[in-house]
Amino acid sequence: MSKGSFLSGRLGLAGARIPHADRHGLLWLSRGKLYVENGTLLFLAAGSDEIDPGLYQIPYQMVSMILAGPGTTITHDVLRILARHGTLLAAVGEGGVKLYTAPPMGQGRSDVARAHARLWADEKERNRIARKMYAWRFGEVFPNRDISVLRGMEGGRLREAYRLIAQRYGVEWKGRRYDRENPEAADIPNQAINHAATFVEAAADIAVAAVGALPPLGFIHEDSSNAFTLDIADLWRVEVTLPLAFSVAARVLKNRELSLEREIRYEAARVFRKKKLIPSMIDQIKELIHVGDDSRDA
């Protein structure tokens, strides 16, 4: 997007064509100062490839969540005014590859949490949603079986996906190996998968926080404090995580002077924007939990 496409002086979700803003009300800001003056939320942009230098008014009443990227400073008054109006604020990495902070759910968001809890607490519904997630991932409806059986079927399909995607990018693949105590001991393809998975999980963290769902209540994953985040991230393992990992691994294997983590982080930010990954995740969460854009707390 060219700099000239922005309207000077005001950022409006519909009129100013803000980078990465969408119908979910996510507003991405980076490289500037966010502050309040005379009750108005302002962003003083230093300038980047996405936005001209200048001063912009932020219509926080129309924004559900502000995502503050690298180079953003925020005053105390911003936190106060956003909290008063129930607008979420999170510090994120470029393109959403990291989630550093996120506040509790904003006002009027308990409908999603309550719907999520109801579905999770019903064993039949929990299994149905798990099967739906598997159907999205693998293009087929899994049989109505115990979750442990479904996980076993998932494992077989994933092993084949690893092999095929590695082959596509010309990467020698010896199998998935990951030592949590010593992750750097893995070969480059496995390290690449670890990094790519971390970035996709951060995107899922942002989506879950934006919707107001409950991270611990996973339908496939269990025990983890962000089990539902892992569920959502896994929906994109074959489409995003593995191609991201193996494409960059191939590049680094040809040039060992490159930093694997940095190359994947930059490529992830580009892919997330191109695929509109976080808005797509939000749509998936709403479909799973049966909550639409027009939902309101009772």
UniProtKB/TrEMBL annotation:
Alphabetized UniProt keyword annotations: Antiviral defense, DNA-binding, Endonuclease, Hydrolase, Magnesium, Manganese, Metal-binding, Nuclease
Physiological role: CRISPR (clustered regularly interspaced short palindromic repeat), is an adaptive immune system that provides protection against mobile genetic elements (viruses, transposable elements and conjugative plasmids). CRISPR clusters contain spacers, sequences complementary to antecedent mobile elements, and target invading nucleic acids. CRISPR clusters are transcribed and processed into CRISPR RNA (crRNA). Acts as a dsDNA endonuclease. Involved in the integration of spacer DNA into the CRISPR cassette.
Protein's organism: Hydrogenibacillus schlegelii
UniProt protein name: CRISPR-associated endonuclease Cas1
Any GO BP: maintenance of CRISPR repeat elements
Coiled-coil intervals: none
The organism's place on the tree of life at top rank: Bacteria
EC number: 3.1.-.-
The protein's enzyme class: hydrolase
Record InterPro entries: Cas1, CRISPR-assoc_Cas1, CRISPR-assoc_Cas1_C, CRISPR-assoc_Cas1_ECOLI, CRISPR-assoc_Cas1_N
Family the UniProt entry places it in: Belongs to the CRISPR-associated endonuclease Cas1 family.
CC cofactor: Mg(2+); Mn(2+)
Binding, Mn(2+): 154, 221, 234
Subunit structure: Homodimer, forms a heterotetramer with a Cas2 homodimer.
Gene it is expressed from: cas1
GO molecular function annotations of the record: DNA binding; DNA endonuclease activity; hydrolase activity; metal ion binding
Presence of the UniProt keyword Magnesium in the record: yes
